[in-house]
Amino acid sequence: MKKPVKITLIVIAIILALVILTVGGYFIYVFSAFHRLGDAEIDVSGKLEKSASVNKEYKIVSFNIGFGAYEPDYGFFMDGGTESRAWSKERLDKNMKAIASFLKGQNADFLFVQEVDFDSTRSYGFDEREYLLNELGDKTYTFAQNFDSPYLFYPIFCPHGIARSGIMTFSSSEITYAQRVELPIEDSLMKLVDLDRCYSKNYVKVDNGKNLVLYDFHLSAYTSDGKVVNEQLDLLLSDMEKEYKLGNYCIAGGDFNKDILGDSSVYFGKADQEYTWAQPIPEDVLKKYSAVLVAPLDASNPVPTCRNADGPYHKGQFVLTIDGFLVSPNVESKSAAVLDTQFAYSDHNPVEMIFELK
Fold first, then answer.
1. Which domain, by its residues, includes 147?
2. How far apart are CA 235 and CA 228, in angstroms?
3. What CATH number has the domain bearing residue 323?
4. Could you tell me which of 58, 61, 81 has the C-alpha nearest to residue 70?
5. Total structural domains within the chain
6. Can you give the pTM of this predicted structure?
7. Of the four, 58, 87, 185, 273, which is 20 to 30 A from 76 by CA?
């Protein structure tokens, strides 16, 4: 073998060895860094010394803010788009201020907010909790972390990086105690992208000696067959059933990542492309429990709660309703509606419910 050819082959072999070692080392890092945060008591901030009341109308709003990145022109790489981070620090800052101002303007008694980032690569290290507290700090609140992923080195030229995020609950009546409850996730490799799911459980005293238990959740999105979301719902509904049997009032709300209308295309039309990630909730999951599903729908003027972020918001894009509420039988839902923002701030529209504790 000629010397130049031999040298070339040696160089190629060295490069290949370095690539293999680098890739192998990265996968070792990802698997060794993966962990779950577990069940835990979470801190309650803000003391109001005010209880909730029976036979009084209250307003609750739930909003998945999409880590402040999903403006109408945004498409996310895991949904078929191209972006892995918010467009820029400046645009993220402006959008988060608009989200916080919008939520304050709802004058809601209770707020569930999902996908609130802190110290994340995709949101440039901003602590998004601070934006919400600047506008909503007059309420008592909790924060439960449900994303805690190692550095994702994809897409290659603009990696998604570290994702740390959570769910934030605000109340105009004092939250006396709160817990983070771990949800089941897949055991396969999908757990590396599904992250660390949980719901927060918040107790508010009621003037009749009972408790209003608020469940704020963001169920799994990136799963291989969707069954794990049914398991998550089963755990949540079982928890609500126990509290209801103790005489407490239960309201759960957030992002189901399930088509809670059964077939949203009946109301919003067929999309340009076929998607299967958001299946209906199986009837047998709900039938086992007494909780009632409250889907925000005006059949005469239907508005979706979520768009598929495969690109900028456009006519024909896959839209559906995956955000809503579950209530125990002693909670009367007076109305439920989608707050139509035209997806100005997120890939979700906020949803609201007016209710009474009976």
1. 36-357
2. 11
3. 3.60.10.10
4. 81
5. 2
6. 0.91
7. 185
